[in-house]
Design goal:
The chain has helices at 2-17, 20-23, 43-59, 74-81, 96-103, 139-147, 162-175, 188-196, 206-214, 262-276, 279-287, 297-318; strands spanning 33-37, 63-67, 89-93, 115-124, 126-130, 153-156, 180-183, 201-205, 219-223, 250-257, 291-292. By secondary structure, the protein is of the alpha/beta class. The chain folds into 2 domains: 27-123 and 250-318, D-Maltodextrin-Binding Protein, domain 2 (3-Layer(aba) Sandwich); 126-223, D-Maltodextrin-Binding Protein, domain 2 (3-Layer(aba) Sandwich). The strands form 2 sheets. It has a 6-stranded mixed beta sheet with strand order 2-1-3-10-4-11, with helices on both faces. It is 43% helix and 18% strand.
């Protein structure tokens, strides 16, 4: 009996040692969490605030969204690379994360080493809209006018942003026409400019464009996704508009500094997935043109690597440079 009791005790001890995940589960968060994004009103800002509110409910802690506007998403990215690797500073960025390294070769960070991909949150197309003063029928009508020599300007949220490069690629590589790029700060300003006729066209993310489109202040010409957006089902895709080699989505993801403990990284990833898939968050994101992601963490990391290669090619083909 003594031998049996000893065996049982040893077996229990071994089982406890073999299951460290329960004893070592991270106690996170125990204080407010900061989410860093680029400009206020940007697509990543919109998504971060919706998701951050749900995370605050899940974590029972404050979640503060902090705007670090500057050089596209560069300043926000740099801020997080320099933060303590403890999970309390999270970067939420758009596909600009993949654009920044080739566009700013002296950016001072390694997109594949300095930050850990945590979660893909949501995705939405960019959209090209026309000023009501242009009286454009569709995107092909606009391109035809440019080919005839009509001087047209298009607004964007700024040099090096996804919407800006989308339009640069369309104009310079696919259509091979001349248009003047007018960069603004943030996504709302170019939409306002298009609505008043200050510029003929604007290329922005779908979320900041939605209020202007719904109010009839601009005419939507095309979305850049492979299929039509559920939020604007009557707006054709770029492929339907005659550009079969064109497809792009503005995705929103989250990262934490390198060397953040893996247990904390996984906890944040799991809770972000739980947040975006909750019914109320899905509804709110859908109302501004976003579909939530079902990617796992490793799938998101692979996707980011693919996007880095894609945008390096587009930056090279368009010759886009910081100004």
């Amino acid at each position: 009996m003594i031998r049996n009791a000893t065996r049982v005790a040893l077996a229990c001890a071994a089982a406890c040692l073999a299951m460290p995940s329960f004893a070592q589960a991270p106690s996170f968060p125990t204080k407010p969490v900061r989410i860093v994004v680029a400009s206020a009103g940007s697509p990543q800002d919109v998504v971060a605030r919706i998701v951050g509110q749900k995370l605050a409910e899940i974590w029972k802690q404050g979640v503060v969204v902090e705007n670090k506007a500057g050089a596209g998403s560069l300043l926000s990215i740099q801020t997080v690379t320099k933060a303590p690797p403890d999970g309390y500073t999270i970067l939420v960025a758009s596909s600009a994360y993949a654009i920044t390294p080739p566009f700013y070769p002296e950016a001072g960070f390694d997109a594949e080493k300095d930050l850990i991909p945590v979660a893909m949150l949501a995705a939405s197309p960019n959209i090209i809209v026309a000023s009501p003063t242009l009286n454009a029928r569709d995107l092909q009508d606009v391109i035809a006018r440019a080919r005839k020599g009509e001087k047209l300007q298009f607004g964007s949220p700024g040099h090096g942003t996804g919407p800006a490069l989308v339009m640069e690629y369309l104009v310079k590589v696919l259509a091979k026409v001349d248009m003047t790029h007018v960069p603004y700060k943030g996504a709302v300003a170019p939409m306002t400019a298009a609505s008043t006729g200050e510029v003929a066209l604007a290329s922005v993310g779908l979320a900041p464009a939605m209020p202007f489109v719904k109010a009839g202040k601009v005419k939507p010409l095309a979305v850049t996704s492979a299929k039509r957006s559920a939020a604007l089902p009557d707006v054709p895709t770029m492929v339907e508009s005659g550009f079969p080699a064109f497809e792009d989505e503005q995705w929103i993801g989250a990262w934490v500094p390198a060397k953040t403990p893996q247990g904390v990284v996984q906890l944040i990833s799991d809770d972000m997935a739980r947040a975006v898939r909750s019914a109320d968050v899905k509804e709110r994101l859908g109302s501004v043109g976003y579909e939530v992601s079902t990617m796992k963490r490793d799938e998101f990391a692979a996707y980011v690597r693919k996007e880095l290669a894609k945008w390096a090619r587009i930056v090279k083909e368009t010759g886009a440079k910081p100004e």
